[in-house]
Amino acid sequence: MPDLSQITGFDWDLCNIEKNWKKHKVKPGEIEEVFFNDPLLVVPDDYHSGKEDRYIVLGITNTGRKLFTIITIRKDKIRPISVREMTFRERRIYENS
């Protein structure tokens, strides 16, 4: 599990920003909000981890939007890869945490 207390910011990829907006209408600021709100669930994404570890993040924005995010950690920064609204099943897991 990543030690989020050591994170100093975000590492944004312009292609991922555009993709997440076009497909799911999620802005970078909303993704960042998730990491400052509780509860925040972070679990390893063993299926998609290859050259680098990836993590599944379930969290909520300041406006109550529940997001499922795939991230990796590069040095001391969070690099969001993909984001979308949580599915019904993911919301149940998140709400019961």
Please explain how this structure is put together.
The chain has 97 residues and is an alpha+beta fold. The protein has a single domain, classed as Ribonuclease toxin, BrnT, of type II toxin-antitoxin system (Nuclear Transport Factor 2, Chain: A). Helix content is 27%, strand content 32%. The chain has helices at residues 14-24, 28-34, 88-95; strands at residues 9-10, 41-44, 54-60, 66-74, 77-85. It has a 5-stranded mixed sheet with strand order 1-5-4-3-2. The longest helix is centred in the first third of the chain and has 11 residues, at 14-24. The two termini are 17 Å apart. The model has no long low-confidence stretch (mean pLDDT 94).
Give a short overview.
The chain is 27% helix and 32% strand.
Percentage of residues assigned to helices: 25-40%
Largest sheet: 5 strands, mixed
N-to-C SSE string, H for helix and E for strand: EHHEEEEH
What share of residues are in beta strands?
25-35%
Number of strands: 5
CATH superfamily name? Ribonuclease toxin, BrnT, of type II toxin-antitoxin system
Strand order of the largest sheet: 1-5-4-3-2
Radius of gyration in whole Å, from Cα? Answer: 13 Å
If helices are DSSP runs of H or I spanning 4 or more residues, what is the number of helices?
3
Q: Give the name of the CATH architecture.
A: Roll
Number of domains: 1
Organism: Leptospira interrogans serovar Canicola
InterPro entries: BrnT_sf (IPR038573), BrnT_toxin (IPR007460)
Pfam family, one: BrnT_toxin
Protein name: BrnT family toxin
